[in-house]
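Review box. Two proteins, two foldings.
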Amino acid sequence: MSKWLASVQSLEEAQQLLPVLPDILDMKDPSKGALGALDVETVSQIVDLIAGRCQTSATIGDLPMNAELISQAMITMATSGVDYVKVGLFSATNLRQCIAKLEPTIKALSTPVIAVLFVDKEADIALLPLLKASGFHGVMIDTAIKKGQHLRAHWSALKLNTFVQQAQQQGLLCGLAGALRCKDIPSLSQHGADYLGFRSALCQQQNRTSEIDLKLAKEVQRAIKITEIEQQIAS
């Protein structure tokens, strides 16, 4: 059964989610892009607040595919104490070379690194073996352009299933995200990804830059639990 990830943009939002903590509490600044980064101090404060009650992750920002720049950002964010550092890999002519150059930094870090590929920016499943070889701990797919286009509008069920299967064959932690809604949970859970990621579904009117609504977070958590029960009954 897929676990769930919730993204927060502030210490206050993290405090609000304490009654309904996800399996992974993610930290990013949605006003700064798909994977906009919070400052390290704020991330550290949220990590301290959570105190191990769930896992944590944080993004390093929408950076160009420059290995030196990304490496420094990974090292800096890892000092916050998060369980995972997330790195967006955007389509570029030097993408494979950039990933390969990240290997020494990734393998030297004690914090596991998750790669994020974007379905609306030419996400390439063929990169998965290279990600594994370069030391990435996991991979997730997401949408880069946040204009209400849902993940399932970009990739078919067959392609989603192929992505999950190939990621798991590589031994990579696997996540699905991209304007996911409660009603997407039953179908997406069937693919067997390790987790589903949410931000806009937790906010009023699906506006990812607005504040989180605790009621909506509870709805997502409830939908995850109901789906888990139904899958157990079916098996």
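Next protein.
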Amino acid sequence: MMTTAATESGAALALEGVSRTYGATTRSRGGAPALDGVDLVVPRGRFVAVMGPSGSGKSTLLRCAAGLERPTAGTVRIGGTDLATLKAAGLTRLRRDRVGFVFQSLNLVSALNVRENVTLPLLLAGAREGRELDGRALAGLAAVGLADRAEDAPENLSGGQRQRVAIARALVNEPEVVFADEPTAALDPVTAAGVLALLRRAVDERGRTVVLVTHDPVAAAWTDEAVFLERGRLVGRLDRPDEAGVRAALGAPTERHLAVAR
């Protein structure tokens, strides 16, 4: 987990010494930052799970890594771009053009149909409406098995189908990194497996990079690597995680049972 220049050169995402401390609320809990000197490199074409107990800093790491929050200290790079060098408008463009998001809450626009929801990132990036745009949306929906629901309203779909639309929307602009925050938390096991399989295919077949924040060992078993946070620090990792290994890691003292990140 070293963050050397050579390692970072091929990285989709690189965090170096990233800390995030909030205001009086955090200090009232003893002054521990939400993130504390996190180093993490995610190579292109990698599927990585970020895990840890509630309050360990998982969601804060995702927000800082995606440019949704500025870290208190340290450096975040997406595809070699140092986010600290970007002003607010530049960060907005980066998130729009080079990052995809899949959230538990979905954030689909109810006033738009399924196809229009998928084309939305392209329209915001300046693409013109027309056959080419619709073709890209339909291709994305076909990849998630929903081409026949393109004209439906989101509320007419099941929870799993809506999440698949969210994945199609996240991938339509061919982002450098897709951030997925507990995307299967509200789904039944069979539907969740289908969603995770789509993310796995995006990595294996399309070369996308996916960072998955999850509490679920079953979800982590779909990834190439699981990294573990504890009290804001990156304390360990597992290559090719399986469900049993992740459960053991989460249930055991991290310093003894995980490969300590150096």
